[in-house]
Specification:
- It is a single chain.
- The protein is an alpha+beta fold.
- It folds into 2 domains: 36 residues, no CATH class; 69 residues, no CATH class.
- Helices cover 50% and strands 19% of the residues.
- It is built from 4 helices and 4 strands; from the N terminus they run ααβαβββα.
- The protein has a 4-stranded mixed β-sheet.
- The termini are far apart.
């Protein structure tokens, strides 16, 4: 017997086994669609969070939105937060993806490199 190690394969096999044992295999297409819908919703961020050391101009917000649409293929609202602790630059968060182009991040990176040397 082939060993199953992929977690999604284990879940799929368990689901099919359960439905089969209960005599409910006709529910498989509906369950599959529901799971696919849930997965799609979880993978689609509801907003783009931009933190910046200073307030962004409308043009900068438009440029960020266009860049995120090119990168992720999504159009969602942008929420901006001014955070002086960044010292300069910005961070962008889209779901789990984060771009940290802040000066505070750059300083931490240099500090870590110096401490490691």
């Amino acid at each position: 017997m082939k060993r199953i190690s992929n977690p999604s394969t284990v879940v799929t096999k368990s689901l099919v086994t359960y439905l089969s044992e209960k005599g409910e295999m006709e529910l498989l297409p509906e369950v599959t669609k529901s799971l696919a819908d849930m997965a799609a919703k979880l993978g689609r961020p509801e907003e783009i969070l931009v933190r910046s050391a200073v307030s962004l101009t409308p043009r900068e917000k438009t440029q960020i939105a266009a860049s995120m649409k090119r990168r992720f293929g999504i159009t969602v609202p942008i929420r901006t937060v001014t955070d002086a602790a960044l010292l300069g630059g910005f961070t962008i968060q889209v779901g789990d993806w984060v771009l940290d182009a802040s000066f505070s991040h750059a300083l931490r990176t240099v500090e870590q490199a110096l401490l490691a040397a």
